[in-house]
Every structure is written in C-alpha cells, then in structure tokens.
Amino acid sequence: MKLKFLGALFSLTILSLQSQEIARPKLIVGIVVDQMRYDYLTRFYNDFGNDGFKKIMREGVNCKNVHYSYKPTYTGPGHATIFTGTSPSVHGIVGNNWFQRSKNVGVYCVELEEDGKKRYNPSRLLVETLGDAMKQFSNFKSKNFGISLKDRGAILPAGHLADGAYWFSSEEGIWVSDDYYAKKNPYWLKEFNAQDKSNLYLKDGWKLSKNISEYEESIPDLNNYEYSLTKKSNTVFPYNLVEAQKETDWGILKKVPQGNQMSADLFKVLIKNESIGKDEFTDFVSLSFSATDYVGHRFGVQSVEVHDTYIKLDQTIANLLVFLDEQVGKKQYTVLLTSDHGAGMPRAYLQDKGIPNGQLNERTMQKELERLIAAEGFNDNWISKLMNLNLYFSDSLKTLKNDQYLKLKVICANWLTKQEGIARVLDSECTSNSLDEREQLAIRGYHPKRSGDLILIEEANWSSYSDKGSTHGSPYKYDTHVPLLFYGFGIRKAEVVKPYPVTSIVSSLSLLFGFQMNQGLLAKPIEELFGQ
Which of 104, 209, 458, 466 has most Cβ atoms within 10 angstroms of its Cβ? Predict the structure, then answer.
C-alpha cells in the first residue's frame, strides 16, 4: 500500500513538473494593418473569404474591445507601443515627427543624421521590443526581422537587436535597409529587387474584386470626398497603374493593394532564405501592411477603394497562412494581428451629413499666437514651434525668465482654449490631478524631453488634415479602437469583450511563452489567453 502511495505521489510530481514546462512556437509573426479600424472586421465580414480574417477570428482569440490609451494615434507611436508594451511617455516615440529643442528643428522618429548622411534605425526608441527580448532570451540564437512599405513600420517593431529591417524606396523602386543592420543587403533581397515590378504588380491595374453592386457597405464610387490617385487619374475604378507609375514614381505601389501583396511576397522570401522557424529557438518577424493607410488617407474610410483593399488583403493573409503552414508547420507558429491606429470619416462627408467638424490650422494658430504675445510685450521668438498639436516654448525663456514663462503660458493657454475645435489645453507641468479622460490620454502620450509645453486636445472630428480622405491622431474611439487577433501555437478559441489596452499585447505573449520584457509597467496581460 505504501509503495502504491509513493508511486502515485511520484507520478503526480512528474505531472506537476511537466505542467511547469513552457512550450514555445518556432515563429511569432506580428502583423500590423496600418489604419485599420476595428469595425472593418465586422463591416466587411460578409465579403471576406473563409481562410483569411475569418479563419483567424474563428480559430483564434478575437479581442473586440482593444484601444490605444494615449494620443496622438499616429503610425510611429502605434508600432512602438504594440511591440514594446509601453506608451509614448515611456518609449519616447511621441509622433512620427517632433520638435527637438536642442537643435531647434523637427526630427523624424527613425531618422538621424551622422556625418552629413541620413541614417535610419531605432535609436530614438528608448526601450526594448518583444523581438529584442526574444533575442536576449535565446542568447542571440533567435532571428528578428521587420518588413514594411514604411521605414518606421519596419524599424520600430523589430527594435534595437534586429538582424534586418526592410522598407520600400519610392524613388528607387527597390526595398532598402541601413548599415545599422547586419543583414542590410542579402543576396535574396537583391534578387527580389531585380524582378520586373511593373509586370508583377502593375500591369493588371487595380480592378474591383467583386461586382460593384456587392460593395453596398460603402458609398458610391463616384463622390466628392476623395483625392485622385494621380493628378491625371479620376477617383473611380478601374485604375491604370502602369500609367500612374509613369506619371509619378514607384511610390504608386504604396498607394494600392498591390503594395500589400509585394510586402507579403518579400516576407515569404525572407522566411525561406533566412531559415526562419527551423530550429528550437523562437524567431520573430513583423510584417506591417502600409498600403491600407495610404489608401485610407487618399480615399476615406467609407470608400469603395478602402473596401476593396481589405477584400484583397484578406486574400493575401489567407495565402500567408497557407505558406506558413507549409514552411514552418501547422500550429508551429503564432500570429498576432492588430493595427497602429484607426481613422475618422472625411470632413467633407461629415459636413454633408451635418455632423460637427472642422480644420485646425497649426501654422495660422502659431502666427496668431506670435502676434498676440508681441502685443503683450513678449518676444515672438519665445514660441519655437506648434506641431502635432504641441506648443513648444523656447528653452532660453524657460530657464532664464521663469516668471515671464509662466505668464506667457497662461496667455497662450487662455487664447487657445477659446479657439473653435480645441476641447482642452493641457499644461504639461500640471497634469497630476487631471480627471478628463482625454487629458489622461494626452498625459500617456507625453514625454518631457520630446513633447510640447502646452498640449492641445482637439474636439471630435477636428484635425489639421484636409477636407477629403481620412486621417487619425485623436483620442476618440474612431482612432483608438483597433482589432486584435491571436492565432496558432498556444492560442485557444475565444471571443473577448473585456477592455484591454494595446500595451497588453507583448506582456501577454511574453508571459505566455516565458520571455522577459524589461518594461511595460502597468500593462496587464489578456487573461483569456491563459484559459483552459
């Protein structure tokens, strides 16, 4: 009897030890669909096939209530937040661009100048990414790459320890990288760049995937809310892309669904030639589909063009899943799919529908402020810049004339608060007691060395963008609410309605697979990923 008891105890001990073992996928793929509102999953659902978005939603975890918890909701901050699990207040990417006081100039989030030459790398990102953590966890045996039509969409997700990051040059018509990366210009990239892109991606033009009558979720193709693809083209299907390329440059590929397909094709070439997902160390590759953003900005979220772009992207994703099944193995990889921000309706559309909206002209507001403070006896040079709805004052004023600085802030804040379209003006030095939800989002988007002294919070449907096409950047749900899907290895089936911030993504994956993230202070994991 005693021997039976000891045998049972031993068996339970072995089972307990086995339960503590953490299994990991061969590959984690981070897919970012640039400017994808959550409701694109539901609005276009009936037009999707069964093997793309629907497959991931059906067989994985669909988080329906995921939001960005800061403003501004731009591409750079979004990509940084997804893959670091922190907000701009921590990772430092407070915009695609921001004003650098020390040099009195605007800077770009992934661009630096060294010895008179522009360099592109993640140096401005202040923390580590999931890919960085995975590299260190494996003692640098795992691989880490980023791909996007946009440089920031490739560089920021892959992080500081990336083996390579690749983006598309509109002028050269090729995929490029930087000396920062060990895999800057591999042989397979040269071969990919040598292909006839016009024949591969442009010759058939942009035609609708379905009969126009099946796009009933969108407004008529001919409308007054869109910009033309080129100066000579109109705004209705079909589009002659060969002629469009001749009129402009290879940047046309960023503005049409074929750009997403080209990105996916490069992803496949990378997976094959870098032997991704072929050993016991989990690799990481980010793939950001950027054409959706360019199409959205040009045509607007209500357009047939956006609608068709997502139908085609659904097919691209379905094909990617088949490829990963064959190349890496079924259920041997994990996919996360989300977006860097949403988008609002074009203001011209809102105007026609009688919905309050308007344009904020930052250049005009700065000039008005300079005239105002000059009339009050201040030096107009004490206002350095108004950009991204951040007002920057001169550092010399702040350090040498503190009493005048405080008075100047009050004058500017009072004037700005009275301007139509401005909901709040936040003093960056007096934020601790703010109760307004929009102000809380602005605080989480604030970094003391990179953000302004006064932060302007816009009213809903107000922006500095033009009347046609869609844009983003606000603290409102049309910009903050994004899809989040998990699929594949280690992922069960579930629909999640509990609210989660985007910062929960990497904290969840790192806990699920045992990787250590070195930041993400308050990022709570998505509990439903850990259910039985």
Answer: 458
Q: Does residue 379 share a domain with residue 323?
A: no
Q: Are 151 and 285 in a shared domain?
A: yes
For residue 470, give the 3-state DSSP assignment. Answer: coil
- Measuring CA to CA, how many Å separate 438 from each of 11, 426, 431? 55, 10, 12
Judge whether 207 lies within some domain: yes
In which element (H, E) is residue 296 found? helix 291-299
Catalytic residue of the set 75, 84, 86, 230: 75
Please check whether residues 223 and 254 belong to one and the same domain.
Answer: yes
Q: How many domains does the chain have?
A: 2
287's enclosing H/E stretch is: strand 283-289
DSSP one-letter code for 206: B
- SS3 of residue 401 by DSSP: coil
pLDDT tens by residue, 183-222? 999 999 999 999 999 999 999 999 999 999 999 999 999 9
Residue 23 lies in a domain: no
Cβ(134)–Cβ(284) under 8 Å? yes
Q: Is residue 446 part of a domain?
A: yes
CATH of residue 314: 3.40.720.10
Q: Which residues contact 519 (CB under 8 A, 6 or more apart)?
A: 84, 85, 86, 90, 91, 127, 128
Considering the domain architecture, whether residues 481 and 449 belong to the same structural domain is answered as no
pLDDT in tens, 53-97: 999 999 999 999 999 999 999 999 999 999 999 999 999 999 999
Does 465 fall in a domain?
no
Annotation says 230 is catalytic: no
Name the residue among 188, 189, 186 with its Cα closest to residue 174. 189
**How far apart are the C-alpha atoms of 53 and 62, rounded to whole Å?**
10
* CATH number of domain containing 415: 3.30.1360.150
Q: How far apart are CA 245 and CA 298, in angstroms?
A: 16
Is the pTM higher than 0.85? The answer reads yes
Half-sphere exposure of 139 (CA within 13 A, CB side): 1
Residue numbers of the domain that contains 269: 32-350+473-530
Q: Which residues pair with 29 in a beta bridge?
A: 285, 335
Quote the DSSP letter at residue 283.
E
Position 3 pLDDT exceeds 90? no
The DSSP letter of residue 291 is H
